[in-house]
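MI domain-containing protein
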Amino acid sequence: ALARALPARPEPSRPAPATKEAPAQLPRAAPAATLSKDKLELKAKSLVEEYWTMRSVPESVASLSDIRSAGGSMPAAVAEVATAALNVRGLDVGVDGRLPPIVSVFDAAMAEPTDPPLRPSDVAEGAVLLAQSLHALAEELPKAPALLGDAFFGRYVASGVVALGDVVRALLAVEPLEEEGDAPLVDMDAALDFVFAVMARVKSDAGEAKASELWSQADVKLSSLASSLSPVEPAELKAQADAKGLGFLAASA
């Protein structure tokens, strides 16, 4: 008789080879701010002039990327570009129309899907820097605080990028130009108009209920924006706010 064939012995199971996990891709860190203030001003001016020559938002976003790659402080770049937008010369566009297109460039830069050259925190910090220099801008262009209040500050306060309280505290913290004076923008009687412009835009973009909520969160009193050398009565502040359709501002006058 033939011997019965034995069943084949099963091969011992071997653990599957371990797979190496790909290292996490961290966002590229922004380079240290090494670009001088003078060079940053020149690049900001060039960006604005090139925008009005080409009318190309992508090209302007690329210019912001170049500033970042060159070691420019992006909060400072935001402030310098906004300033350059107001000061650009030789345009067939009135001063009232110069800021909105540049703000659109900021929006596009923040919306870049990979490695955006601007982040919301850059705009928020840039807003504080800009608030600190509003009085200097107002000396050259009296409408500057109101224009920036509407097209830049109001827009970003309404969208939650910029905190109103940070902005107001920044402008109030600027050293007085005179020993017994207030913050320069207050002494120029421009601080109230600035805040009225900001909040009018917030109300327009986000509605009165949201504007009132943001004003309450900012913990600002209208009286702090009026010169201490010529105090304004609460009733007068309320009348000014009411005339702007911003009566809710007077709740904390």
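thats it. Residues 1-8, 15-30 have pLDDT under 50 and may be disordered. The first helix runs from residue 37 to 54. bye
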